[in-house]
Amino acid sequence: MSLVEQLNGVHNIFLDTAPVIYFAERHPLFASPLQQLFEMLDGGKLTAVVSPITLAECLVLPYKLGRSDVVQIFTNLLMNSDNIWLCPLDETTAAKAAELRARYNLTLTDAFQVALAIQTGCETFLTNDLALKRVREIRVMVISEQPVGTTPK
Fold first, then answer.
1. What letters, b where the CB count within 10 A reaches 16 and e where it falls short, cover 68-80?
2. Which residue, of 17, 44, 61, 116, is most buried by count of CB atoms within 10 Å of its CB?
3. Residue 15, phi then psi, degrees to nearest 5
């Protein structure tokens, strides 16, 4: 079943950093399913939440390489898309992140990402981090576990 098919009935998804980078860089294995996902976002069939952590992680390498053009691509994608919401972190998110970190031994960054996804009512958390599958409070989908080269029917 393709990524898009697995998202049938999902209205709000959290995008971890890896899927955003894979989409922007046109990753050879994951570009096609992520293109379909972003088309769903563009068409209003789905909304996504990202965090300032995702934005920051996406910008590190372009800043290191002095690639202001790539910085602008990520900034536009995450901050100027109609159906992608960059949600701030707050004290409620921090408390939930601490709880998740204690329960699942997550990194602080991952705990904040998952906490924000839960706090904003996302139904699915899209990542490429297999370690996050142990989280039970939200459905976690891992990009590398998705079929490659399939198209929705």
1. eebbeebbebbee
2. 116
3. -105, 115
Amino acid letter at 109?
A: T
Measured CA to CA, the distance from residue 81 to residue 115 in angstroms comes to 22
DSSP annotation of 87 reads P
For the chain, the distance separating the N- and C-terminal CA atoms, rounded to the nearest angstrom, is 10
CA distances to 2, 58, 85, 151 from 55, rounded to whole Å, are: 26, 5, 11, 29
141: number of Cβ within 10 Å: 21
The span from the CA of 39 to the CA of 45, in Å, is 9
| Domain topology for 7-143 | Rossmann fold (3.40.50)
What's the whole-model pTM score? 0.92
Integer Cα distance of 66 and 83 in angstroms: 29
